[in-house]
Fold these 2 entries.
Entry 1:
Amino acid sequence: MTRKLEVVATGALALVEDLGRPGLAATGVGRSGAADRRSLRLANRLVANPEGAAGIEVVFGGLAVRAHGLLTVALSGAPAPADVDGTPVGHHALITLYPGQVLRLGVPPTGLRTYLAVRGGIAVEPVLGSRSTDVLSGLGPEKLSPGTILPVGTEPAELPLIDVAPVAVPPGDDVVLRAVPGPRADFFTDVTALARTTWTASSRSDRVGMRLEGEPLERASLEELPSEGLVRGAVQVPPGGEPVLFLADHPVTGGYPVAAVVLDADVDRAAQVRPGQRVRFVLVPPPWKDTP
Amino acid sequence: MRVLPCGDSGLLLEVDGLPEVLALADAVRAAQPEGILDVVPAARTVLLSVEPGTDLAALRRTVLDLDVRPGAAPPEGERVVIEVVYDGPDLEEVGELTGLGPEGVVEAHTGTPWRAAFGGFAPGFAYLVGGDPRLRVPRREVSRTSVPAGSVGLAGEFSGVYPRSSPGGWQLIGHTDAELWSMERGALLRPGCTVVFKAVR
């Protein structure tokens, strides 16, 4: 029997994501991939997949999937309560789904995005080397909807070695992100104001970026900036002064100044911030020195 | 060259203008420094984004030591020929603006090879530079709400081909059937490649 996952329910949004399509940014195609790469990697390691195998990224829980064939899966990221046909199961642990069994996720008490890895990986057709859905460019598979059938790949030769991994769950209180002053920090009267303000994550946030609400950052000059390349984690400040922290599906270039760049590891934590949650930045020096 | 910080994700290299961008991007692509995931040229900058954990201090030294020669002949590289039917709605006007006449515009557009300098705007779109300087024309005063895919246009020092139908303010001189973008192959024109236009009927 071909192994498949049948989507029964999706909640707010459920997407197939792997680690994205690097190397194409110069042609206008962003990296995309899991918003919280660390959690996807962990879930994949638990089922002994390659770290970059495609899994399901679930926003605010609510996913339900039925197993076609015998499947081994694992959950990571936002700790949505989960059950298999009504029997509770844990995160960061191997879960066996017998044919016909349904794995169901509730709403996570903290965090935003839960990852489901399946041994063998979600095997939808890749687009430009990746199975990720990029919500900005529209590349990759359609968002999941009830009735979607997802093929599952061949199980890897490696066997799962860990039953349960102890992992810190995303916090429910203020999230502190480390950031380096950005390439255009000098476009602002005082970039350290970014770190003195307690920001609130807006409900208009998505995989493209987290919009932050708070005391607007003041521009030192309104000098025009030709568009330039952006990295994931860039904190860009549009004319209104309220920053956008770019996440997985950020545009490849942008014309507003970047005040700071969040350290790569902390961008994964940023992807777990819920709308309404408070965010603070700590400015740290760049990991290199500006001396010849 | 100024090396500007981008956290631990990369370096943004800022230079004086497009000739420097082209030469710098050429030099980086030729040197292939370790850890680089993406080289993203733009109008005045080249972004190098790196794999996590890459030694950015070392990368910075490597970049500052590169032999960058603005205006030098481009390295031997990919060459793309694009067949164009020169029947664009703005061909007459461009002929008048440049004083070349429609036939002169076609001759100038096909006579000098262009180079893809940088992308942006839409997947598969490339800003082409280095063509005949007599072809510099302003954008249209009023943008079109819809420019068909495959339209070949001019704006300022740039030429370009619309990969898909979109609004646009470029002066349209022709159209091509070439597939600028496909899901299987991605972009036809990658920054750094040489582009030659060929007139067809």
Entry 2:
Amino acid sequence: MSNQAQPVAIKENALSRFLQTVDIDNRMLAMIIALLVIWVILNIMTDGIFFTARNLYNLAVQSSVVGIMATGMVLVIVSRNIDLSVGSLLGFTGMVIAYLQVHVLPLGAAWNWPLTILCGLALGGLVGLWQGWWISYRGIPSFVTTLAGLLMFRGAAYLVTDGRTVAPMDKTYQILGGGIDGSIGATWSWILAGVAIAWMLTNTIMVRRSCLKYGFKVKPLWVQLLYLAIGTALVCGFVLVMNAYYKPRTEIPRGIPVPVLIMIFVVVGMSLLAKITRFGRYVFAIGGNPEAAELAGIAVKKITTLVFLVMGILCAIAAVITTARLNAGANSMGMLAELNVIAAAVIGGTSLAGGQGTIYGAILGAVIMQSLDSGMVLLGISSAMRQLVIGAVLILAVWFDVVYNKKRP
Amino acid sequence: MSQTPLVEMVNIHKRFGGVHAVNGVSLDLYPGEVAGVLGHNGAGKTVLMKALSGAIPCDEGEIRINGETVRIESPRDARKYGIETIYQTLALADNLDAAGNLFLGRELMTNYGSLNDRAMESEARKVISRLNPNFKNITDAVKNMSGGQRQSVAIARAIYFNAKILIMDEPTAALGPQETAMVSELIKQLKSEGIGIFLISHDLHDVFDLSDRVSVIKNGNLIGTRQTKDVTKDEVLGMIIMGKLPEAA
């Protein structure tokens, strides 16, 4: 070996050994760094407005609708399908919920809004099943089926009230959309933080114990403690920011907004679904090699249909938040949302070829996109220009993926 | 041999539209025997074996396992009867790791009802290291593995679940000499355990080295079945290319 090769080789070893010990997913790390860089740049450009509690609180609320749907889109894309109808489905289920709440059931009754939510979820699920049936059992490609869905359900949303906007919604229901009373307050936020930290700790202990039981290599204790420390810091940081935004003209901290709470539950649920259930494993297997999945005895058609059922239910959840926030049902709700949802999943590392993607990545993708959009709004950039920028970011993110995958052995 | 055959495939037919892919083929397999199945591309050998593995249920015909008639309509049915298959394409999900593929469809679960990834990894390590001691990176995604490693995963999957009947479709097609030798060793060992193996292959030499009997399929028809020791390679070649039976019995 020549003298020149040696120093570079030594430096590479130390860094790669560190990365290997810590064993973080490189792509996730890159995304987190990208998000932080974007935040810092935006904060500088907006003279510190970006990092105010108020802006970050609103950012979290605005990310929730796309974030919730993106978790479902990950499973759809992983299974080698696509769903173009999510925006229209949001609009349709939202209109039905609003119509039922305001014009059919007695507005103000305590059982009104919970019932309408259940109806909305059932409707979203039914539509998802219907689309899933055409895709799995009738062999219509998902692109075509959901494109038809995009058209049909946007039309259906209009037909619910012949285009009229339905308003206002139930007072209690509005809490689900965020707003002045739409957050859980400081105490509950800290309780939730405590639960999250306890869960992280329990998880780490259980995984470590399980690894030792089977005689696997465990990550060094200092690495696991480091992860726990960072996780705790992030959770506490998040709660501190949410508590720093006060209700208007008071010193009462808002705490975690309800839409964000809903998103957190959805993310945890979908993540568990994807990682620890057979269903999730089979969705990934189908995406990796549908023929192999079939030969392994997996009920490919049933699982694909269920993926679309889940997506439909998630659209309905997003519709609940949207109508609650708007305090109205408007037939244009969710227009073009599918593009943001797909972009969030893709920026978050979901491959359109199928078989690869993470729920957390999709949320990061949604936050990255929303951060850019919010930041540009703060800078007074026009809506058209913002669209241009976000489209460009989408290409960059996927290009990064292509290059990154080429470099791997 | 006066014992009951492990597998009897009787008068199997399979049509795809107008194409008669398998036309009244009958084969059988005895315990501890390797039955080679030879023929051109498109002769129907894979379709015939997929009738047994449940991937392509047959239109007509009967399958008997240990003398009992069974219905095999799906891969799950086949596995129930102890039939495991190593497909020509390996049928591995590239994005999953070795353990994920080994247990695909038959995952080990924890007491809480979640996937027991660590138990599956531990079992996978044990069985794969028996087959291929140099296999270190078993938690990698299968798409990052070499051809020989992928083959090890496919073979491990077949033997882990205690197959009584193994179907191997072109098992050494993508392998180098060392790995081919390992597969031959494995086949000899499985034979000694009383497992019956259907070996589909193009390679005349492999089939002659490994199989006890050889059957030739041409255009969906069975040309003939002979004891390997009773025929020469030229005669078998004649059967494959011209459909001509060798002289004498």
